[in-house]
Amino acid sequence: MITKNDRRLGNAIKKTRKQRQMTQEQLADKVRITPKYVQFVEVARRKPSLKTLYRLAQALKVKVKDLIPF
Fold this sequence. Notes:
Layout: H1 4-19, H2 24-31, H3 35-42, H4 50-60, H5 64-67
């Protein structure tokens, strides 16, 4: 089940990625996940593990709390 918080997280990741002028492929490469997984996270079809969320934040040069808008 997709929740509002899942959507907010995905939107925050997508917004930050675009602010950094990164493609999904570039982000995926830095985090060592597939571009499809990045896409699924951004549209809230998948929930990243805490480890993956931490790696996403590192790649985007933000703190995890900056990606969690709730």
